[in-house]
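Ex. 9. Protein: tRNA dimethylallyltransferase.
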Amino acid sequence: MTEIIAIVGATGTGKSGLSLETVDELGRRGISAEIVNADAMQLYRGMNIGTAKLSESERRGVPHHLIDVLDPTDEAAVAWYQVEARKAIDEIHSRGAVAILVGGSGLYVSSVLFNFDFPGHDDEIRARLEEELAMNGPGQMFARLKAVAPSAAARIDQKNERRIIRVLEVIEMTGNSAELGTLPDEPDYWRPTQIFGLHEDRERLVSRLDERVEAMWASGLVDEVRSLIPGGIRDGVTARRAIGYAQALAQIDGALAQSEAIAETQALTRRYARRQVSWFKRYDDLEWLPAGDVGNASQVVSRVIADRS
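Predicted structure tokens for tRNA dimethylallyltransferase:
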């Protein structure tokens, strides 16, 4: 019997809307449901515009878990998220409800749905690597990673300092890259799950994403980022690098003109969407649905009901 409904896909395909419609459709069948966030950046308090986070009123009274649970200075770690998300799902089940996992952060989704084990941390190794990063820069650290674990390096953006340090840390701890950030060869579900992915025509999605970024600036993203500076967003390992937020900070600092900040955010958003699609295509049991189709919620619920009968 289905215990988790997962709604995934690229950014801008309407996952949040479908999750709410699915809750409504389940309710009409006498089944209660609650939503668990699987968007890494929506974990952060105050980061609303750039993450397209639903406001309280837009959530329509539906319980949402793991939204606004971290400060911008906190580091979002997938191992931590796995524990917290599964705890939330267990609590939802204890109330007799279905958990709907919603988001586009592929590794976060996989960490919940499948039996992933994550290596621990070594503070001493991490501190030394951070010091070396400060002295030598990300280019040299990435070159080191590429030399010792080329397959791991191939999956990492060479500008992603946090990810480079994490993989180097794991290599020192375990002697190998442990295939970080990949699905197991034969994924083993943590709980009975049905996965639905939203897909959109590439050209339409690109146009929508570009418009969405422009709308974020028009809605006050720069002011939102400016309001987060006193709270330490500049010191946040994860938050300060978020797409849109990094560019808004650069605009505030005078390093980018507004037009440049918008264009860079649009390009990064398009690239991120491509990576999301590639990630979710590896889910063998995923059922793709056309983004925006009015019948999607009914189809999701019909599948769940059929599994219960």
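Check your answer against this statement. The domain at 123-174 is CATH 1.10.20.140 (Histone, subunit A).
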